[in-house]
Amino acid sequence: MLGERRGSRWATLEATSGKRRVVLYRSRNSREFQRVRRAVIRAVEANRDPRP
Fold first, then answer.
1. How far apart, in Å, are the Cα atoms of 25 and each of 11, 15, 32, 35, 49?
2. In which domain of life is the source organism classified (predicted)?
3. Which of 4, 8, 19, 29 has most Cβ atoms within 10 angstroms of its Cβ?
4. Contact status, residue 4 vs residue 46, Cβ threshold 8 Å
């Protein structure tokens, strides 16, 4: 599961692995953060099983 947390000066991309929450990426630069976020989403979608 991927999640995103904002509200402070930092934007954080997080994932849940088992019962642990892990920070994948953190940035103060909004444009850079959005680029990384979109790349992660594309990578996850590309690795999903194709639907019949």
1. 8, 10, 11, 11, 25
2. Bacteria
3. 4
4. no
Long-range contacts of 42-45 (CB under 8 A, 24+ apart): 44/2
Query: Residue type for 47, please?
Result: N
Specify the pTM: 0.71
12 burial (CB, 10 Å; 0-12 / 13-18 / 19+) is middle
Give, for all 52 residues of the chain, the pLDDT tens digit: 555 666 668 888 988 989 999 999 999 888 999 999 999 999 989 988 877 6
Give CA–CA dist 52/24, Å, rounded.
Answer: 31
